[in-house]
Amino acid sequence: MTDTTPWDAYLNDADRAVLEKGRFGRRMGFGGNAAVIVIDAQRYMVGAPGDDAQWPSSCGDIGRKAVGAIATLVTAAQAAKVPCFFTRFELAADGSDIGVYGRKRDLLDSPHWCLAGTLGAQLVPELTPSAGDVVFVKKKPSGFHGTPLLGYLIDRHIDTVIIVGGATSNCIRATVFDASSYNFRTIVPHEAVFDRIPVSHAISLFDMDRQFADVVPLQEVLNYFDVGTNATAHL
Fold first, then answer.
1. I need a surface site. Which of 41, 98, 104, 197 has the fewest CB within 10 A?
2. What does the buried/exposed string (b/e) look like for 191-206 if buried means 16 or more CB atoms within 10 Å of the residue's CB?
């Protein structure tokens, strides 16, 4: 960990001493075969410039800026033949599949939220899955829970997952922890994830980097693609 991390402003000297003593935050690095997992980069998550009031879950300009970074990364991945997996979080309009989430938040009857079949549930237009990429729906925070993602990764002999999207403190965090639990090398380019609340974003990145993932600059991932390590990735 360095003094240029997104969470550095939230740590004091005592915190840094704990990290040093426990030898937290070492680098795991990239493996030999990567995949990109794009979590919930949907219209309801980023809203629209000048119109965020209509989008109850919008992350606003923060989310839209991250979408630009995600699009850059996805384009580079596709050029390098790195498979990309896109999740979409969506709920039935009658709330029949909302589960425990409905005990913490009301079901919102809005085309600008994440209801199935609405504008809000669509992927942002900046992202275009290519041949060989996979798009699937999830119903829980983690991209692994109740989805075919793990099987897809095993089939393609993936050892490294690069996780982007939103929100950092919810679905990104849950997906990162599951990826680590399955022993994937887990990489999070911090410019390509976003959240509604800055402190949640920063501390979630800190927690991931401390023990479960490498939180790195976007350029580090782009450099990895340029090396050509994944030119023979299994599609």
1. 104
2. bbbbbbeeeebbbbbb
Q: Are 66 and 194 in contact (CB under 8 A)?
A: yes
Residues facing residue 123 across a β-bridge: 42
Continuous segment of H or E residues that includes residue 14: helix 13-22
pLDDT string in tens for the chain (235-residue length)? 445 799 999 999 999 999 999 999 999 999 999 999 999 999 999 999 999 999 999 999 999 999 999 999 999 999 999 999 999 999 999 999 999 999 999 999 999 999 999 999 999 999 999 999 999 999 999 999 999 999 999 999 999 999 999 999 999 999 999 999 999 999 999 999 999 999 999 999 999 999 999 999 999 999 999 975 443 333 3
Residue type, 230: N
Pairing of strands 185-189, 34-39: unpaired
Q: Dihedral angle at the C-alpha atoms of 26, 29, 35, 40, nearest 10 degrees?
A: 30
Per DSSP, helices labelled H in 101-231 are: 149-155, 173-181, 198-211, 218-227
pTM of the model: 0.93
Please name the residue ranges forming H helices in 32-115. Answer: 43-46, 60-79
